């Protein structure tokens, strides 16, 4: 469910007409809906309300401070994967005791920052990382609460590039070594063993592989407890996949919660969830304007003012984001277009052979489900400024990130003296 709907022929975000936003802020433009963000958070937290549960929103999905502050106001925690994300989460008002830190490559300075903040949990992904963390915590006279991310050898995920739970992937510690590594961790002076962590992939719309992985993890928790290793938390990783097209029906938060309850049985643990896409994905759309319609060799290209630098998912994962005209055309006459951007790469294409009502130069189009892994993955390739982001709440709207000027883009670069002298 989201709050991007037509009123008459015009697409709205909550009570604001999209053409008005395009007029005010320009295009390309990301538009986020507060009501949708809050609704997604609320539905998930209600589904888990009978369970001790921390919802640690996965900041990587959409890390805009206004999005984080909105979720912080709902009580959300955060799953961060870098010093930068930790900085953002704290700055947006997410308390350190609700923050978990994931990722395979945490640097010394990142670990120190998280230790100084006093975060809830480090999701440790290797033995060398355990040693490094123990050393740094000991030097501070503290014990770092950890979960080991285990790799359950269950492959799942919307696309091969976003699947993480198989043996070939870099993530987590080997399943067969887990118990030995936990025993080792128990003896480390700077480590407090607190939990087990698992994450098998993203955009998983079927809960069966999740169940398989969680059942394995629950079995491991019971074995660890039998070894007197005090596991009090299970981190189940990222959330469910989302519908990207009308008609897609992924598992619901209540199906997911029921499955988790069933798998946990009588196991008394705090559940940690790290949902990103299911919170932010359908809470954002991406607006672009048609620059040209070009017909060549029997193909019809709609050349947009947005490129793969603004929304990378189609180029990177062959993802198709449903495109809707911002103002519905008066006629039902449809045409087939390749929806492309201005960048000098053939992968700069949002969709091939996309059937839609007739498009004209100057028309606004909306790519749906762009709130997660959209703006965060944008870049300035072709020196195209990272585009602006707007947050809507009812009738209110405000810029939550403005596009940099060309001067700002080059301001951190310098020409060495030997070139100019
Ligand atoms: N926790 C961990 C350890 C993760 O690696 C991820 C996502 C999440 C949580 C959040 O997963 P979610 O709830 O959003 O499914 N750029 C790709 C997605 C990469 C996901 C990376 N990890 C895309 O655009 O589809």
TrEMBL record:
Domain Orn/DAP/Arg decarboxylase 2 N-terminal residue range list: 36-280
Matching InterPro entries: Ala_racemase/Decarboxylase_C, DAP_deCOOHase_LysA, De-COase2_C, De-COase2_N, Orn/DAP/Arg_de-COase, PLP-binding_barrel
Keyword Lyase: yes
Domain of life where this protein originates: Bacteria
EC number per UniProt: 4.1.1.20
Keywords associated with the record: Amino-acid biosynthesis, Decarboxylase, Lyase, Lysine biosynthesis, Pyridoxal phosphate
Pathway, per record: Amino-acid biosynthesis; L-lysine biosynthesis via DAP pathway; L-lysine from DL-2,6-diaminopimelate: step 1/1
Cofactor(s) needed by this chain: pyridoxal 5'-phosphate
CDD domains associated with the record: PLPDE_III_DapDC
GO MF annotations, alphabetized: diaminopimelate decarboxylase activity
Family: Belongs to the Orn/Lys/Arg decarboxylase class-II family. LysA subfamily.
Name the UniProt record assigns to this protein: Diaminopimelate decarboxylase
Organism this protein belongs to: Ponticaulis profundi
């Amino acid at each position: 469910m989201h709050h991007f709907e037509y009123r008459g022929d015009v697409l709205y975000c909550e009570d604001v007409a999209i053409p008005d936003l395009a007029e005010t802020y320009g295009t390309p433009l990301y538009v986020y809906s507060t009501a949708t963000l809050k609704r997604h958070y609320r539905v998930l937290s209600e589904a888990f309300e009978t369970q001790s549960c921390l919802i640690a929103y996965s900041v990587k999905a959409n890390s805009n401070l206004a999005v984080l502050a909105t979720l912080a106001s709902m009580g959300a925690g955060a799953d961060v994967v870098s010093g930068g994300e930790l900085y953002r989460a704290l700055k947006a008002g997410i308390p350190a005791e609700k923050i978990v830190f994931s990722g395979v490559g945490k640097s010394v300075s990142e670990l120190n920052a998280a230790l100084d903040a006093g975060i809830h949990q480090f999701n440790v992904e290797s033995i060398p990382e355990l040693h490094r963390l123990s050393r740094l915590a000991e030097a501070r006279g503290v014990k770092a609460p950890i979960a080991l991310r285990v790799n359950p050898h269950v492959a799942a995920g919307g696309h091969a590039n976003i699947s993480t739970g198989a043996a070939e992937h870099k993530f987590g510690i080997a399943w067969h070594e887990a118990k030995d590594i936990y025993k080792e961790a128990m003896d480390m002076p700077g480590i407090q063993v607190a939990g087990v962590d698992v994450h098998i992939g993203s955009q998983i719309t079927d809960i069966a592989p999740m169940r398989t992985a969680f059942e394995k993890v629950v079995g491991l928790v019971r074995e660890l407890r039998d070894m007197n290793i005090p596991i009090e938390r299970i981190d189940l990783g990222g959330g469910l996949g989302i519908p990207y097209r009308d008609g897609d029906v992924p598992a619901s938060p209540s199906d997911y919660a029921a499955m988790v309850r069933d798998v946990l049985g009588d196991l008394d643990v705090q559940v940690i969830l790290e949902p990103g896409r299911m919170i932010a994905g359908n809470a954002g759309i991406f607006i672009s304007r048609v620059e040209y319609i070009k017909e060549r060799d029997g193909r019809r290209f709609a050349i947009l003012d947005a490129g793969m630098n603004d929304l990378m998912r189609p180029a990177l994962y062959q993802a198709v984001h449903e495109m809707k005209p911002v103002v519905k055309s008066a006629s039902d006459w449809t045409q087939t277009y390749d929806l492309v951007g201005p960048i000098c790469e053939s992968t700069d294409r949002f969709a091939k052979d996309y059937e839609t009502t007739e498009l004209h130069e100057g028309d606004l189009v909306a790519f749906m489900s762009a709130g997660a892994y959209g703006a965060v993955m944008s870049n300035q390739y072709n020196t195209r400024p990272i585009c602006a982001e707007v947050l809507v709440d009812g009738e209110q709207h405000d810029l939550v990130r403005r596009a940099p000027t060309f001067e700002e883009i080059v301001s951190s670069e310098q020409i060495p003296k030997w070139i100019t002298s």
